[in-house]
Amino acid sequence: MPKSPAADARPGEGGELHQTTSTPEARLTTNHGAPVSDDQNSLKLGPRGSTLLEDFVLREKIQHFDHERIPERIVHARGSAAHGFFELTESLEDYTTAKILTEVGKKTEVFTRFSTVAGGAGSVDTPRDVRGFAVKFYTSEGNWDLVGNNIPVFFIQDAIKFPDLIHAVKMEADRGYPQAASAHDTFWDFISLMPESTHMVMWAMSDRAIPRSLRMIEGFGVNTFRLINAKGEATFVKFHWRPRLGTQSTCWDEAVKIAGADPDYHRRDLFEAIDQGDFPEWEFAVQLLNQAEADALPFDILDATKLIPEEDHPLRVIGRMVLNRNPDNFFAETEQAAFLPTNIVPGVDFSEDPLLQGRLFSYQDTQLSRLGTVNFHQIPINQAKGCPFQNFQRDGHVQTQVFKGRANYEPNSLAEAGEEGGPREDPKGGFRTAAVPMEGAKVRLRAESFADHYSQARLFFRSQTEIEQAHLASALVFELSKVTLDHVRARVLANLRNVDEDLAKRVAGAMNLPLPKASAPAATPIDLEPSPALRIVGKYPDSLKGRKVAILVADGSDGAIVAAVRKAVEGDGGAVFIVAPKIGGAKLADGSVLPADGQLAGSPSVLFDAVAVILSEDGCAQLLKEGAAVDFVRDAFGHLKAIGHTREVGPLLDRAGIKPDEGVVDLSAAKSGDFLPPARTRQWAREPSVRTLA
Ligand code: HDD
Q: Which among 330, 348, 382 is the end of a domain?
């Protein structure tokens, strides 16, 4: 009986190929095993050529190389992933039969991929964009893929609009730009004509769309699913991931500069954290609603542009996910991972959400052009590792399983003749769709209950702190200022008036544009109770755990102060990164050499959460001449970071135009521990002094 190909594999029977090894006797061969005698020179007629067509070693190597790339994902092309485990801490057995949600304490392997949406595979990590949050659970009942985002709602209500949404946000069709950016005509044209997108636009313009780290984003299943219990009863469920490190963001100006300083900022951060044993962790939580509770909501539970406020239906934390192993090979694992919302386990079921229904087709289908075969489930990262998979599907491109016997159809009675008969369906334990009663005429209609496009956009905006509201308004100003079509800008403003009059005024005012008449909403928006759970400011964790502090030194720096700051930061869970003008390090005042982790020009302060500048008078005088040093402190200040400094650094701060506030700590006068409280957060109060917000 065929199993998951990795299990019990023998050469020629599928499963893992003989991998290259690094033992001294390991021999370089062609793909077909022929030993290679010379990998430096092609086969030529005489030492100066011409090269011979006969050279199968050359041809095989070049041909394989020519085909190394595969089509990138049509969306979410840029991504980073890691292995880990999920552990259930509370059973949901009253609601579901799914083993993954009822076996407390059991650890299930996962593979989780984070992504941006709009940019290509080679684009930068820090554009303003939604982040994908896709988790593949290798459960004992088959793979379960929870393919979510870091925003709990979606732009559109019906999957039929997805190609339009994506065409509008991607590079414009004639010019091929902008890459990985929503700040352009076609995106805002589409948005302005699709008021249902307004709620998600609020989220996308908030600081959640410029995260500090992939380890610091929330995750949401977005669509409503059902849980099915042993009695066949259904309960609506929303899935949530909450990062242990808190939800943290960057400043927009900072995100833009990070894109240049380190295009792989998030990928590197995730890889390095895991590599160093600092494993990111998330709580897994659910919101459960029965039919009566769903009916009582002021919107339709099947509408993916709506969230369920936590204050009304609290989150129930039922487990945790830890990512503790980097992929061995980016292409084989991260790139070839195929996440499918149709990967579901018995006890969990879909809802009729029309966005989800379309997704159920799209993901399976897209793998055919991306991975090139219906057998993509045999690629190791996609295999159902937690259990055997067995059926009568056969052949196809790149079939790696060697099936034995004649049983490739069902029903069959071959077992009666002593032959292998193959697997059979399991009416009891197999996946069953909930028998939800349904009736109706066939129509192409949007339900009336989906008509309210503004109440939750308003809820989100009004639930934010003042700082977050100002950032959101400023993001809208930035994006709309990149739009070149006046009528599009005007239509967005007309829609914004239905969200919040003050927001619309601020955005129009900051663009010096008149406020148009409000657009006519399909349903009159209502004022909902604000939901403080939707804020991120004021919730940064009270430690530097997971964060990075740069210490800028030069020749003559005081080693004792460096050591004290290092001790304080590391004691608080943070990591220290020494920046010096030269990569070989700096000669400290006591004559010892402090090695550098990064050279000043390549380690701007945008890459760190806080900075300490520890210089002698001479060291400071030298760095006054370095634009990178002036930018180092100016940007740290502008991005609302704490700056610790020795007294001698005064002239550098002056050169950068810094007027010290509570977040600027004189380390010569204070205890190094005094640097910690401001380093753990951003200096929000400083912001009006460094930029004008809408
Ligand atoms: Fe999607 C990829 C998340 C709606 C069609 N989507 C993709 C990925 C994530 C999401 C995280 C990347 C998975 C990975 O890392 O490989 N998508 C969402 C969420 C949605 C959503 C949270 C709304 C609730 N998507 C959506 C719709 C459609 C698609 C409505 C089409 C009808 N999505 C795709 C796709 C992708 C994809 C084209 C590209 C690569 C892939 O599937 O495997 O099929």
A: 382
